[in-house]
């Protein structure tokens, strides 16, 4: 459906004139990963495209974004990692980092195996090829996890300003990250650091705003309260 919506945005109705197979392949290659595009048929995309008849370009864009954003981790930065800590998880994983915390996924799927909020992270230490994360909520025993990552590879690098913009307004168009060759573990640690700084700043701002709020505005009137009698003027 994602490819069909993109076709509706680019060309409008499927019969005006009908896109060629090559054009559909171009759209499919731009919407999904190459391994998924190769398994899709042009006929299936064309059929779904025709179902969207009558949908305007703005409506198609809105539906396209809604479909992308239906996955909670659509804004996450995803890294390949390997773990040997527990047999409950596969050895090869995807480690996703977003504004809420860390998430472990089965490779090449959207299936989330486990998540950890930033408030539960006690410590984290990166090296060139691994990342150690220590977790432990209040009153719980701390757990240590070590993830082996690629030492140097091309990853999407996001600036601190890009991360900050995600919290300012969800309507803002995200900036395009730059592609650089960096060690993945330090990059993951930097993302964790930036996200936690933004969360801490927002928490501080909220606390300051709460302190400035007049006490009377937050205190409801008691049902036993009686208004004073009116003043008589002679």
From TrEMBL:
Higher taxonomy: Eukaryota, Metazoa, Ecdysozoa, Arthropoda, Chelicerata
Domain called IRS-type PTB: residue spans: 83-151
Top-level taxon: Eukaryota
Pfam families named in the record: IRS
Disordered: annotated segments: 206-234
Record protein name field: Myo22
């Amino acid at each position: 459906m994602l490819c069909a919506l993109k076709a509706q945005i680019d060309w409008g109705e499927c019969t005006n004139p009908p896109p060629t197979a090559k054009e559909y392949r171009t759209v499919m290659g731009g919407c999904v990963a190459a391994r998924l595009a190769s398994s899709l048929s042009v006929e299936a995309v064309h059929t779904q495209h025709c179902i969207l008849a009558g949908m305007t370009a703005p409506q198609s864009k809105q539906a396209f974004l809604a479909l992308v954003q239906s996955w909670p981790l659509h804004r996450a930065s995803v890294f390949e990692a390997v773990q040997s800590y527990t047999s409950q998880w596969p050895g090869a994983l995807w480690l996703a980092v977003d504004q809420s915390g860390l998430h472990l996924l089965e490779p090449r799927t959207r299936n989330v195996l486990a998540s950890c909020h930033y408030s539960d992270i006690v410590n984290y230490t990166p090296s060139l090829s691994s990342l150690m994360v220590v977790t432990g909520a209040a009153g719980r025993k701390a757990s240590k996890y070590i993830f082996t990552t690629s030492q140097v590879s091309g990853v999407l690098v996001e600036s601190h300003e890009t991360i900050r913009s995600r919290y300012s307004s969800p309507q803002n168009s995200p900036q395009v990250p730059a592609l650089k060759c960096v060690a993945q573990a330090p990059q993951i640690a930097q993302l964790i650091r930036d996200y936690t700084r933004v969360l801490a700043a927002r928490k501080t701002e909220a606390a300051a705003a709460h302190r400035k709020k007049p006490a009377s505005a937050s205190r409801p009137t008691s049902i036993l309260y009686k208004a004073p009698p009116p003043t008589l003027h002679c």
